[in-house]
Design goal:
single chain, about 210 residues, alpha+beta, Glutaredoxin, Glutathione S-transferase Yfyf (Class Pi), Chain A, domain 2, four-stranded mixed beta sheet, about 10% strand, globular, binds glutathione
Length: about 210
């Protein structure tokens, strides 16, 4: 069975939603950010970055990095057809947007919410946050264009990359404004959210 180091509202949402889509069994190991459990020696021995998610595979191999997990999980469950076959043109498109999300959008969101970590000068924090929000909107505009023809990043076909996109959309600081500016982002968010496995996952992460 998979073991997923999990925190409410965290990036554990993406691998969890993928497990739910596939119907794969997983155990949650809950890490409480408020109690700073992600900074404990025990958790740092799992992920020295002190970040969630972390994942232990059924053979005991440890993984960190959300996008890497998604690729590995879809490859272990080819019957679920949540990624195109390796080597295909569609796979190239899948990887392009997966890595765009992981290496641009996810870090930009971290800059929005953890702005104080990006300077030793407290007076710089507000500007860092404002610049990150502007970058985030630019990146979502690129994604909005990539969703044509949609409705998914692979056109008609829903795949694991849409799960990562959906999670990052949830974290936009002002989703109503995002949806006005980027109608295809609004459409894909609604379609992914309507999937029973995703809705089930979301209920565990949304703020009460
Ligand atoms: N590059 C990592 C980023 C993971 C990450 O930053 N997770 C956040 C939660 S969404 C976290 O653990 N934050 C706690 C902290 O940095 O103190 C990934 O893709 O998995």
């Amino acid at each position: 069975m998979y073991k997923l180091y999990w925190a409410q509202g965290s990036g554990a949402m993406a691998p969890q939603a993928l497990f739910e889509e596939i119907g794969a069994e997983y155990e949650k190991i809950v890490i409480d950010f408020e109690k700073e459990e992600h900074k404990s020696d025990e958790f740092l021995s799992v992920n020295p970055m002190g970040q969630i998610p972390a994942l232990v595979l059924p053979d005991g191999t440890l993984m960190t990095e959300t996008a890497a997990m998604l690729v590995h999980i879809v490859d272990r469950h080819p019957g679920a057809k949540l990624a195109p076959p390796a080597g295909s043109g569609e796979r190239a498109r899948f990887l392009r947007w997966l890595f765009f999300l992981a290496s641009n959008v996810y870090p930009t969101i971290l800059r929005v919410y953890y702005s104080e970590r990006y300077s030793t000068d407290p007076s710089a924090v507000e500007g860092i946050k404002a610049a990150a929000e502007a970058d985030l909107n630019d990146q979502f505009e690129i994604l909005n264009d990539a969703l044509d023809p949609g409705p998914y990043l692979l056109g008609e076909t829903f795949s694991a990359v849409d799960i990562l996109l959906w999670m990052l959309i949830q974290w936009h600081p002002v989703p109503t404004r995002l949806f006005e500016d980027a109608p295809r982002i609004k459409q894909v968010a609604g379609l992914v959210q309507a999937r029973p496995a995703i809705a089930r996952t979301w209920r565990e992460h949304e703020e009460n």
